[in-house]
């Protein structure tokens, strides 16, 4: 199992704001691996090729606490090895990330559309976490929660690893009041405000989440703030945090969010169209700071352009 290394204690520095990966050699009860290199080729050869593993070994890319790994060392269960994976080619997201608030414990950032919160899959260096680590010189910065890549707005980051659990607990226990804003079609037949409750399930590897019969596990309040022609501006107040919850609930009302590439129809994969961002914004975060006990409220400085055209 590949594990993300902590910034403290790893024998390799961050690269591009990304921690080195850490692997711990497992027990070898069947005697499959005579050397460390045998295991690394077996473990990673399927993904990057045994030849590439050998190249990385020759280049000193695999490191243990006392220095580079050659691959010729006798296999030793429990040994920890660190390395930086090859980053995928990423299209730069042409929008900056703003900082709404910063102190010795937290950073509240304004994440732009199209930027993932943290490394995952093909999005690694082009993520809010990697950018903020580089731009703010905060190597130990970690997100307290996630915001969908296509959604813009407020994300809370924690400066010190020791504090992260306290802030994550706020989101786990639903002690953070979150307010979103969206632009979507206006339909006079949809009675608003309304509270939508449903059961949402998201299958791994499937783009769209779906509503299914059963006990509700999601709740959102939908309010109309403004109407302009065929479009409306909506205030969305989620009581829960299921994957794509607000997008699913708006679509279920017959009000799919403007420029949504998944709901109601999953668009074919292709280059990003940065002129058509999903018109969904995490507008407000409000909570009691678990360390200081102070009531905090943050407002995004971003705005949606859906009522006046792309932007």
CATH topology assignment of the largest domain: Pseudouridine synthase
Tell me the span between the first and last alpha carbons: 42 Å
Oligomer: single chain
**What's the number of extended β-strand segments?**
16
Shape: elongated
What is the string of helix and strand elements?
EEHHEEEEEHEEHEEEEEHEE
Q: What structural class results from the helix and strand content?
A: alpha+beta
Assign the CATH superfamily of the largest domain.
Answer: Pseudouridine synthase
Number of domains: 2
**Count, helices:** 5
Instruction: Let me know the average pLDDT.
Output: 93
Provide the gyration radius in Å: 23 Å
Instruction: Label the CATH architecture of the largest domain.
Output: 2-Layer Sandwich
Defining key terms:
single chain, 311 residues, alpha+beta, Pseudouridine synthase, 2 domains, eleven-stranded mixed β-sheet, three-stranded antiparallel β-sheet, 5 helices, elongated, disordered N terminus
Give an overview in words.
By secondary structure, the chain is an alpha+beta fold. The protein has two domains: 2-83, no CATH class; 98-299, Pseudouridine synthase (2-Layer Sandwich), CATH 3.30.2350. It is 16% helix and 28% strand. The chain has helices at residues 36-48, 50-58, 128-136, 161-172, 245-252; strands at residues 2-4, 21-24, 63-64, 67-68, 80-83, 98-102, 106-111, 142-143, 152-158, 177-185, 194-201, 210-212, 218-228, 231-238, 280-288, 295-299. The strands form three sheets. Strands 6, 7, 8, 9, 10, 11, 12, 13, 14, 15 and 16 form an eleven-stranded mixed sheet that branches. It has a three-stranded antiparallel sheet with strand order 1-2-5, with no helix packed on it. A two-stranded antiparallel ribbon has the order 3-4. A hairpin with an 8-residue loop joins strand 11 and strand 12 (210-212). Helix 1 crosses helix 2.
